Amino acid sequence: MDGNFDFIIVGAGSAGCVLADKLTADGHHKVLLIEAGGSDMRFYIHMPLGYGKTFYDPAVNWMYRAEPDPGFLGSADFWPRGKVLGGSSSINAMVYVRGDASDFEDWKAAGNTGWGWDDVLPAYKAMEDNEAGANNWRGTGGPLFISKNDKSRHWTCGPFEEATVAAGLPRNADFNGASQEGVGHFQLTTKGGRRNSAARAFLRPALRRPNLKLISKAQVTRVLFEGKRAVGVEYVRGGVRQSAKAAREVILSGGAVNSPQLLQLSGIGDGAQLQGLGLSALVANRNVGRNLKDHQGINYTYRLTVPTLNDVLRPWWGKLRVGLQYLVFRTGPLAISINQGGGFFKTDPARTRPNMQLYYQAFSTLLPKPGERPILSPDPFSGMSLGLSNCRPTSVGEIMAKSPDPLVHPRITANAYSTAHDVEEMLGAVKFLRKIAAQEPLKSLIAEELRPGPAVQSDEDIITDFRKRSGTVYHPCCTARMAPSAAEGVVDARLRVHGVDGLRVIDASAFPSILSGNLNAAAMMIGWRGAEMVLQDAKG
Q1: N- or C-end of the chain: fewer Cβ atoms within 10 A?
Q2: Is residue 104 left, alpha or beta, with left meaning phi > 0 and alpha meaning psi from -120 to 50?
Q3: Is the pTM of this model over 0.85?
Q4: Do 452 and 444 meet the contact criterion of CB atoms below 8 Å apart?
Q5: What is residue 444's three-state secondary structure?
């Protein structure tokens, strides 16, 4: 057995890397970090637009597949999740959005003391080094550099933003500032033209410390208990089963898929479900794996009369030119995300806060290359995409272990568009996309709408279309949600698992409810806040 560690962190993803950094910073605690994936030192991870190459790569990606979903007319959605140092922060689109301030007030109102906006804002500011500079909302001097993303954007972002303003949205220079509503450009987790993942920002500096040990390519199979106290973990590495002991706590940071599965395989979950797997329940809690929330998105695609990134990234000579530009100067389209503009809007002006996120992409991918997300192989014509995703869907799914074998992927049931609320707001949202496309100066650049096409006009046809073409935008959360009691959730407000000692879940699975926007920023923030709580309790 490996030991003696004070803390064991399971998962070197967005939250786990932050935890490893903060728990070892003062040198007082010995920490073991265990990651199922391997090194992130891959060219296509660090080149920002290279994440298309990781989309179907099992070397860095869990490559989950959800169950066939009636909400998607029976299709089974693909769920990429990072299986590599940095987790999904190493394979995502790098958009940095904290969430609306009201989202965290919802967390506090649900009984989660210490998670209101006034509680989380200092954590965000402390971990950030925002290129735009410090103010009442942004932080500087922290370990996480955040790019302004005001360079290398395609020129058609300008007409898109002007058309969106003409459609009724205000301009917004900072979606992480005073208000989320409006149109502008997203901040990115890039630095010097390279991806700035949680591994790069937090884990690399921490690995220089003698009190942090990293074991990669090792999958944790269960949490070990003495009575109802977590004392360590069992893991498999290279086909060999091993174990490690934690004197203080075991912290699960495997994310919204892995953490609930590991809890279930360790005897914490729905008693009937565990019995069906031949497992005994140490603590019966039916909330484990349930309450799954995720954002669903869709693109409307247009052929333009002017060149877009399709014309640059499709031909070999275009790839060569931008490749050389990137290698020499770390600039150009390969140095930023494909989501070069966007914003947040309300489908109904009576709403008190935005309920939809908007994306602009100066490329299109109707003809994807088999086996690869087609970011680097766009269509052979000038195209663009207007995309969106819902901010606070009411549909609820679940993630359940379907085998006692920890190497078997769990059953993911998304239940997308299973409520009338979600269908109605998506209907309003896609109509707004068409409203944007009908405004100048964007209108004059559009030759035709390709998807869904002008024949799709009735509400019934529009709904059928987005059920057919929608999919996850890779923001699962809430499957081990925070709540005051085990009747409502899995962990308490200090992220301790209800019913046992010495065990916490600190990752997006612990979110009490889904946030408005991309979740990576909040996953790192919960790691930061969670580490503060762990260290505070260690002194008690």
Answers
A1: C
A2: alpha
A3: yes
A4: no
A5: helix
Looking at 185, 295, 475, 498, which residue is catalytic? 475
List residues bridging with 265 in a β-sheet. Answer: none
Predicted confidence at residue 3, as pLDDT, reads 64
- Whole-angstrom distance, CA of residue 23 vs CA of residue 30: 8
Return the CATH class of domain 1-34+73-146+194-291+477-540.
alpha beta
* Measured CA distances, 442 to 151, 267, 342, 430 (Å): 21, 56, 14, 17
Query: Domain locations in the chain?
Result: 1-34+73-146+194-291+477-540
CB 33 within 8 A of CB 12: yes
In the Cβ-directed half-sphere of 370, how many Cα atoms lie within 13 Å? 0
Nearest-angstrom CA–CA distance, 242 and 259: 19
475 is catalytic: yes
Alpha-carbon torsion 504, 9, 474, 345, what sign? Answer: positive
User: Can you name the residues that pair with 446 across neighbouring β-strands?
Assistant: 304
Q: How far apart are CA 162 and CA 171, in angstroms?
A: 9
The β-bridge partners of 237 are: 218, 240
Among candidates 525, 33, 510, which has minimal Cα distance to 259?
A: 510
| H or E segment to which residue 260 belongs | helix 255-265
> Is 15's pLDDT higher than 80?
yes
pLDDT above 90 covers what percent of the chain? 94
Q: Place 367 in a pLDDT band, splitting at 50, 70 and 90.
A: low
Indicate if the pLDDT at residue 2 is higher than 90.
no
Locate 439 and state its tokens. Answer: 């405004």
Neighbours of 238 (CB within 10 A): 7
212-240: per-residue pLDDT in tens? 999 999 999 999 999 999 999 999 999 99
Pair 376, 391: CB distance under 8 Å: no
Closest by CA to 518, choosing from 383, 372, 300, 337, is 337
Specify the residue for token string 């959605």. Answer: 77
Contact in structure between 7 and 249 (CB atoms under 8 Å): yes
Cα distance from N-terminal residue to C-terminal residue, the chain: 28
pLDDT value at residue 194 = 97
Per-residue pLDDT reduced to its tens digit, 482-526: 999 999 999 999 999 999 999 999 999 999 999 999 999 999 999
Q: How many CB atoms lie within 10 A of CB 417?
A: 23
Q: Hey, what amino acid is at 185?
A: H
User: Residue 219, Cβ neighbours under 10 Å: how many?
Assistant: 19
